[in-house]
Amino acid sequence: MITRRSFAGYGLFGALLAPRARGVPVSDSEILLGTSAAFSGPSRGLGIELYRGAQACFEEVNRQGGVFGRKIRLRTYDDGYQPDPSVKNTMTLMLEDDVFGLFGYVGTPTVTRVLPLLKKFQDRSILLFFPFTGAQPQREPPYGEFAFNLRASYRQETGGLVDNFVRVGRRRIAVFYQADAYGRSGWAGVRAALARHGERLAGEATYRRGTKFTSTMRRQVEILKAENPDAVICIGAYAACAAFARDAVDLGLTVPIANLSFVGSENLLKLLAGVREDSSRYTDLLVNSQVVPSYEETSIPAVREYRELMQRHDPSPPEELVTESYTAFAQSFVSLEGFLNAKLMTEVLRRLGPEPSREALEAAMFTVQDFDLGIGESVSFSSERRQGLQRVYYTVVRDNRFVTLTDWHERFAKT
């Protein structure tokens, strides 16, 4: 619950009692967007890659003169994929930085805590654009009206995975999930999808958010192995999910292991590749759902543009946020998603015209109808449709990289 005491604890109570005069948070030279994401901790690759993809787009827009002469700037803070810092950062962005909108947040446990702030301060007309989460809270009442989503939902990802596993004879499906709002969202999606097929969860095991790759997952593997599942769907971040995949194989749980898009596929694969020289034993049965097409598909116009601009600008996160070592990827599913988020954000800012206001942002979003984002799926928004894309893609590992899965039967049919 948000109280006066909690605001005081964030050092922002005075701002609430005596709000400073504020006009349109846009100068003649820039439009300021606000971001809180993971740039530290075991999930830092998610925030860094999403930021890099968005910046590749924004830097090119700015290089060409910006939007009606205004450059798009990101005011960025690190929350380590933890809710309390994300709340603090959001209060700062809204009340002190006076940003035009919130953009590119990472994670369900953080976003679900931020949404009540947008409702409480709705007089400021600040909206959340394109968070990196497929959870339901920002897609339905009472908070759906304060956010716009681009990516498909976790319900769509989990539903697609379940449907495909059942279709190839793998009906006993277990889940391994993060013990928080994100994990429960995916857990609920798997249960609902199984119920449509007249099935129940074959087993479940959890882990704590922030778990590192060096942690053991023996207990979780043993719990699920005892239930004799045909497949396991993981709802987590890359460090813990890589640890689970490693220990599952080592302990003889040799069934397909699926991950959702949020996992961070390239970072997961990098961790598994470092376990031993022959890493294929850990990746042969992996299947990851994605909410953007493969960045290897250069026949797709937006993918070609993304690859070109990532190479041209090679964006780095703000230096003050980089407190732990991290090697970025030339391309990744996460940075491609960030790029598409920024591409659509730029389009919406253009539709505001030369005199933008926060109050006009929602109406501008609703003008996006059958918009070609360059990936073969048009984007539309309305008061009843606050999610732009619906498609889910599936990928498997070949030659130490994720590629598009073309035949579920050939790869995963139960024999």
Provide a descriptive summary of the structure in words:
With 415 residues, the protein is of the alpha/beta class. It contains 15 helices and 14 strands. It has helices at residues 4-9, 13-17, 44-63, 83-96, 108-120, 154-167, 181-196, 218-225, 238-250, 265-273, 280-283, 301-313, 333-351, 361-366, 408-412, and strands at residues 30-37, 71-78, 101-103, 128-129, 147-148, 173-178, 203-207, 231-235, 257-259, 286-290, 371-372, 378-379, 393-398, 401-404. Helix 9 (238-250) links the parallel strand 8 and strand 9. The longest helix has 20 residues, at 44-63.
Structural class: alpha/beta
Strand order of the largest sheet: 7-6-8-9-10-13-14
Beta strand %: 5-15%
What's the rounded overall pLDDT mean?
93
User: Sheet bearing the most strands, described?
Assistant: 7 strands, mixed
**Helical residues, percent:** 25-40%
| Run of helices and strands | HHEHEHEHEEHEHEHEHEHHEHHHEEEEH
Present the secondary structure layout:
Elements: H1 4-9, H2 13-17, E1 30-37, H3 44-63, E2 71-78, H4 83-96, E3 101-103, H5 108-120, E4 128-129, E5 147-148, H6 154-167, E6 173-178, H7 181-196, E7 203-207, H8 218-225, E8 231-235, H9 238-250, E9 257-259, H10 265-273, H11 280-283, E10 286-290, H12 301-313, H13 333-351, H14 361-366, E11 371-372, E12 378-379, E13 393-398, E14 401-404, H15 408-412
Parallel strand pairs: 1-2, 1-3, 3-4, 4-5, 6-7, 6-8, 8-9, 9-10
Antiparallel strand pairs: 10-13, 11-12, 13-14
Helix pairs in contact: 3-12, 3-13, 4-5, 6-7, 9-10
